Amino acid sequence: MVGSQPPMTDNSDDPEGIEPDHMDGEDSGGGASVIDDVKSLIDDSMTYAEAELTYQKTRLAYVGAQAKWIAIFVGIAALLIALAIIALVLGSILALAELFTPVGATVLVVASLAIMAFLFVILAKAKFRELMRAFAPDEK
After folding, report:
1. Cβ count near 93 (within 10 Å)
2. Alpha-carbon gap, residue 66 to 72, rounded angstroms
3. Do residues 106 and 113 make contact, with C-beta atoms less than 8 angstroms apart?
4. In this structure, what are the phi and psi dihedrals at residue 9, rounded to the nearest 5 degrees?
5. Distance between CA 122 and CA 64 in Å, rounded?
6. Cα–Cα distance for residue pair 130/94, rounded to 1 Å
7. Cα 20 to Cα 13: distance, rounded to the nearest angstrom
8. Per-residue model confidence as pLDDT tens digits over 92-113
9. What is the Cα gyration radius of the chain?
10. Are the beta carbons of 36 and 25 closer than 8 angstroms?
């Protein structure tokens, strides 16, 4: 018969007769139960967590190796800058030795460096005081 409805089972608890006959927690399609789905989700989550941990360990090892080389290169650069400053000071003494005596040129260069160092100490002290004022409790 075309257009006829399949026979309904008698569900006395369901007044409208729309409740399925299989309410025992199993899927009628033969699929996995909710418990199996949760177990699978937990297994997948554990696999993902292990993979993420391995990935982060690899990243950390890479960063550590790169940081080592960065530190080495910065150290070499600092050493070369220090050598350049020494050469500049020595060159200044040699150049000024013609205008002044060698001792006078040495005194002039050392005094100039000492004055510059003193000025930078004053600037550092001012910045330190500014920093301490920023973190000092408000006085009212």
Report:
1. 19
2. 10
3. no
4. -85, 160
5. 38
6. 41
7. 11
8. 999 999 999 999 999 999 999 9
9. 41
10. no
8 Å CB contact between 44 and 51? no
Token output for 66:
């790169």
How far is it, in rounded angstroms, from Cα 90 to Cα 96? 10
Instruction: Tell the residue number behind the tokens 């001792």, with chain if given.
Output: 103
The answer to whether 131 touches 122, Cβ cutoff 8 Å, is no
Quick: pLDDT tens for 24-64: 544 455 556 999 889 999 999 999 999 999 999 999 999 99
How far is 109 from 90, CA to CA, in rounded Å? Answer: 9
- Kindly report the pTM of this predicted structure: 0.52
**115 within 8 A of 122, measured Cβ to Cβ:** no
Give me the torsion for CA of 14, 15, 18, 19, rounded to 10°. Answer: 0
Q: Between the CA of residue 121 and those of 74, 118, 128, 132, 139, what are the distances in Å?
A: 24, 5, 10, 16, 28
